[in-house]
Amino acid sequence: MKLKYIYAAIFAALTLNSCENFLDTENYTQKTTSNFPKTSEDINMMLSGLYSTLNHQNRQHTVNIYYVAGAASDELFGGGGSADKAFQMTDKLLNVGVDAFQSFWEDNYKGIYRANMILEYVGNVTDWVDEATKNQAIGEAKFMRALLYFQMAQMFGEVPMPLTSEAQNLPKSSAEEIYAQITTDLKECIESMPDKKYSPDFSGHATKYVAEAYMARVFLFYTGYYKKDTLPLTDGGSVTKDEVISWLEDCKDNGGYGLVNDYRELWPYTNPYTINDYSYTNGQNAIDGSKLAWETDVNNEVLFATKYSVYGSWDDVSLSNMFPLFYGFRNQDYAKTFPFGQGWGCGTVNSVLFNDWLADEPNDPRRNASIIDVSDPKEGITYSWDGNDQMEYTGYFQKKYMNINAKASDGSLVVYSYLMYGAQNNMQLGQTQDLVMMRYADVLLMHSELTETADGLNRVRNRVGLPSVDYSLDNIKKERRYELAFEGIRWFDLMRWGDVETQLERQIGVKIINAGKETTMQSFGGGFTKRYQETGGFWPIPKSQMDLSGGVLVQNKGWGTTDAEFLGW
Q: 393 phi and psi, to 5 degrees?
């Protein structure tokens, strides 16, 4: 919808709109701009609402940035059932319908609106404990605005950029203007936020160190994709590579973050209620010889994540992580696929990734820690085709975000979080696993890439028992591909390296099974290379947004025509 309509809807939903006072009396039951925010606690409430936009944008699985980063790349195929064209469109760089990305567009602008509101009204609050606490709150709002605009810029290229809560009907801003605002917001975060090192009690909040890590991610994408040497600033200045390295080193050395002992301990299939019943983890020790055990979502390797809770309901499914449901096995006997549970069968793993990984690093434990090979006896599962509507089946599924079951005391299968946290025993509403957005391993790999040194690269490799290697961009590419698989990064790495066309073309001819029938992956819409050249890797603006703008917004190149639509197999 047009931005002014987005703003109006959000304004009303948050009950922050000013209203006429009846007989000049104060409204004690409704929060309005006349009485809210007044305190620092009010600002904290607004920040909670701001962070929640990350949850909301990810409830629509097929059109959020994390699914796109996997499915559009060479990591995952769309999967799902025979009727799930919306799941399968992204891996072919195609679209289904006119408003496929509507929810992602709206949810991001809701968050941007909330960030702008905080920044406009934070000056009204006077009860801050100290200036550092105030600067932390301002920094969190600026960080979130930067993050949301970065997501929009990665997904759509050029987008409207409102910087106030005023209702506006804006045209697209240029990529340079958008990245200048992102960079400026992050730079101000880094320079003004207090020195808050890693603390479990502050998990899920942005800090100065999180902003430093994201500055590196923004720099690498912008300079790589747009072929620039520096990041622009709104005042006409720029941020150099050396500055980015300095900030990243501060994050790396002083943020209180580190690598967990064993890579498998990052993912909930090693939770205490599952580990001893899962053949892959039963009786296993961590790589350092200690007892293998899930570090939980809150650990010092995770810098930033979308947080979920036990309070998911049909009134607000965004409180649950829907990705494990999305990626779970489709139409199986779940006693035979234990510990992997029920789901929609989306995001089947491209066998090219599995085979490349095996060839490049045959002794890398991350391969089996990240990918389910249904034929591997170590997994101890039996996958059946009886009555299965699974599309684009390869025999491989990702393991990091998977519906994980545990065995209750009576032997029944339950969602692990039901036993561990008291969540609902419901495959859709009981998923509490956080969605990791930035890990310390990524910080180390970005530092190696920016400095062209091998230290960070080898720390990541040595953590999984792999030998050290010399620095090269090729080694960085391989390490990022394997370490960060299925974590919402690969597509944007390919875009910034200029590797999209080469890697996507390798998907053609890959053996798949569609609803029990053997076939091969095909190209649609003229082929992967053609679609990438037509679109530049960016996705369609929802038609309803363009209609409501009255012609102010124009469609991105490569979209809006019949040959850009996925019509099914």
A: -75, 135
Domain that holds residue 39: 3-19+29-83+97-252
The larger pLDDT score, comparing residue 399 to residue 98, is at 399
Cis peptide before 272 (omega within 30 of 0): no
pLDDT at 34: 73
The model's pLDDT over 354-372, given as tens digits with 9 standing for 90+, comes to 999 999 999 999 999 999 9
Angle made by CA atoms 297, 299, 303, in degrees to the nearest 5: 90
In sequence order, the 6+-apart residues with CB closer than 8 A to the CB of 27 are 19, 21, 35
* Position 41 in a domain: yes
128-173 pLDDT tens trace: 999 999 999 999 999 999 999 999 999 999 999 999 999 899 999 9
Could you tell me how far CA 491 lies from the centroid of its own chain?
A: 12
Sign of CA dihedral 357, 359, 364, 369: positive
Q: What is the maximal distance between C-alpha atoms in the chain?
A: 77
> 222-252: per-residue pLDDT in tens?
999 999 999 999 999 999 999 999 999 999 9
Residue 335 has pLDDT above 80, yes or no: yes
**Can you give the three-state secondary structure of 286-299, one letter per residue?**
CCCCCECCCCCCCC
pLDDT value, residue 306: 96
Of 496, 520, 397, 382, the closest CA to residue 154 belongs to 496
Contact 347, 70 (CB under 8 A): yes
Residue 232's φ and ψ, nearest 5 degrees, are -80, 155
In the 8-state DSSP scheme, what is residue 540? P
CATH code of the domain covering residue 178: 1.25.40.390
Structure confidence by residue, pLDDT tens digits, 245-255: 999 999 999 99
Phi then psi for residue 304, to 5 deg, are -150, 140
How many domains are there within the chain? 1
Give the CA count within 13 Å in the CB-facing half-sphere of 556. Answer: 31
Residue 406 in 3-state DSSP?
strand
Q: How far is CA 115 from CA 145, 226, 269, 338, 380, in A?
A: 6, 27, 36, 43, 48
Residue 503 lies in a domain: no
Closest CA to 62 of 321, 326, 275, 260: 326
Q: Is residue 78 included in any domain, yes or no?
A: yes
Contact 350, 76 (CB under 8 A): yes
